[in-house]
């Protein structure tokens, strides 16, 4: 079932509204996505291009001869992926205003998975509030600790 969700880049220059089907969320592990994001994988949700409305247009990077990626030229936030041909595209889950509750349903390019980064449930967890010096830096600079 689709739900209307909003999102955008870190600095707010690029904004969008999309009709999202949470069942279309997945993790991509391909080397192109790893390099495009600097991460070991990227969380995407697929949708028809017709279900995507840009309130402010992103820039597009031709990441290969067959695809391009929307991003913010001001802050660099990666916003998605789209083949040059076809009716569908992907939006980065992290660019959604409220990504909580979106869960992945499959892994793509599974041959490139960095297995040690998949199940991190046993790792020690440190909240930002536990790092007093960093929290204070944020408060001094902006008056608050970011979410």
TrEMBL record:
Q: Which family, according to UniProt? A: Belongs to the Gfa family.
PROSITE patterns per UniProt:
CENP_V_GFA
Outline the extent of the CENP-V/GFA domain. 5-106
Q: Which UniProt keywords apply?
A: Lyase, Metal-binding, Zinc
Q: Which Pfam families match?
A: GFA
What name goes with this protein?
A: GFA family protein
User: InterPro entries, alphabetically?
Assistant: CENP-V/GFA, Mss4-like_sf
Q: Which residues form a coiled coil?
A: none
């Amino acid at each position: 079932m689709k739900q209307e969700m909003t999102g955008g880049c870190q600095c707010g220059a690029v904004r969008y509204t999309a009709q999202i089907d949470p069942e279309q969320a997945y993790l991509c592990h391909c080397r192109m996505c790893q390099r495009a994001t600097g991460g070991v994988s990227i969380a995407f949700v697929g949708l028809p291009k017709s279900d995507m409305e840009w309130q402010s247009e992103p820039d597009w990077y031709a990441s290969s001869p067959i695809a391009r990626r929307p991003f913010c030229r001001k802050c660099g936030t990666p916003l998605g992926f789209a083949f040059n041909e076809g009716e569908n595209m992907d939006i980065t889950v992290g660019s959604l205003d409220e990504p909580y509750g979106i869960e992945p349903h499959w892994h793509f390019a599974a041959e490139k998975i960095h297995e040690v980064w998949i199940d991190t449930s046993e790792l020690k967890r440190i909240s930002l509030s536990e790092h007093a010096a960093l929290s204070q830096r944020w408060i001094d600079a902006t008056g608050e600790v970011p979410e």
